[in-house]
Each structure stands twice: as C-alpha cells, then as structure tokens.
C-alpha cells in the first residue's frame, strides 16, 4: 500500500515523515518505508493485510494531506530453461537477495534495499532463439567491479568480453543472457 504527500521542502518532508512514523509507533520499523524528497514524501506499507490496513488508517489521520499514488510496480522476468542454473548468476551480478520466505532455486530475487525491481524467472519448455532476450547494464563503483564480476563467475556466469574494461565487462549466465558490469572509468 503506497501513498504520497506533496511537500515544499526537505524540512517539510521530514515533518510529514515524523507524523507518519509517530502514528505507526513501534510498528513503523517493521512495516513502514519512507522516501523523502524535496517535493514529495512517499509512504509505503508492507506487512500482513490486517496490520497494513490498521497502520494506513493511523497514517491517514496523522497525515490527512496524503494523495492517491498510482500503483506501478516494475518486475523483470527472465525466461529460462534451467532456472536453478541461472538464478545464482543474477543474484550475484545484481547483488540481490532471496525474497523473504522464498529462497528456493526457482524463487524470485530482490534488491536488499527494495529500490530496484524484483527479478523472477519464467520456465521455458523449449529454446526460443528468435525471441528477444534481455541485457542489463549494472553500474557499480569502480572499486566494486572486480568483486561483482568474481561473484558472478563463481555463480555460474562466464566472461564474454573484457575488451572495453574498465568501462564495462560483458558477462553471461549459463543460458547466454548477458549483463554488463560498468563503471565510470574509461568512458568518453
């Protein structure tokens, strides 16, 4: 459940966030996510359905200026023949974690900070070489690139090309889906 509040400054955003946090009390730490910006505060609740409804009611009283927020959730699906073979690669190359309560070899993976989209895997019954495949560019700090590449290789990936390093390295999972680890170095 998500709502937003228009604000005039970061100071105003802090005041709105404080009211929402106070309304939720001790439950805020486990159930409320707050995104502060100079023009808007986003309040997101995620927990059991009953707790979410109760906390939403408390926030609505404490922060009556909330506005409906259009629900949009971006998830990325990767078609695969052998999900257990490619899932560790994507978990490593994106530095993602298992989704809470879903840590099986075919389950989705998520950004530990919940900023990036969830990645899930769709079982293919046969190869579809004519269909579009995916390609991610994962931009990391230059001093993190080597560790990210190493983790992806240990997770079953392979190095396709390091020709443009340190601007980017092209990696692929066991089925040939590619990802580039990129840095700001070596760019025009």
From TrEMBL:
Q: Which residues form a coiled coil?
A: none
Q: What is this protein called?
A: Glyoxalase-like domain-containing protein
Q: Which InterPro entries match?
A: Glyas_Bleomycin-R_OHBP_Dase, Glyoxalase_6
Q: Which Gene3D superfamilies match?
A: 2,3-Dihydroxybiphenyl 1,2-Dioxygenase, domain 1
| Organism, as annotated | Actinoplanes siamensis
Domain Glyoxalase-like, first and last residues per copy: 76-182
What Pfam families does the record tag this protein with? Glyoxalase_6 (PF18029)
């Amino acid at each position: 459940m998500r709502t937003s509040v228009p604000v005039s400054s970061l100071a105003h955003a802090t005041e709105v966030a404080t009211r929402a946090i106070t309304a939720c009390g001790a439950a805020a730490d486990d159930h409320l996510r707050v995104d502060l910006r100079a023009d808007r505060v986003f309040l997101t609740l995620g927990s059991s359905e009953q707790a979410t409804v109760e906390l939403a009611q408390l926030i609505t009283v404490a922060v009556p200026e909330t506005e409906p927020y259009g629900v949009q959730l971006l998830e990325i699906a990767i078609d695969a023949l052998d999900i257990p073979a490619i899932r560790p690669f994507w978990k490593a190359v994106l530095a993602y974690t298992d989704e809470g309560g879903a840590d099986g070899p075919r389950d989705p993976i998520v950004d530990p900070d919940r900023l990036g989209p969830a990645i899930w895997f769709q079982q293919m019954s046969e190869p579809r070489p004519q269909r579009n495949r995916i390609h991610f560019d994962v931009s990391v700090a230059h001093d993190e690139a080597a560790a990210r590449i190493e983790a992806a290789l240990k997770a079953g990936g392979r190095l396709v090309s390091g020709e443009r390093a340190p601007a980017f390295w092209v990696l692929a999972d066991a089925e040939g889906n590619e990802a580039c680890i990129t840095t700001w170095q070596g760019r025009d």
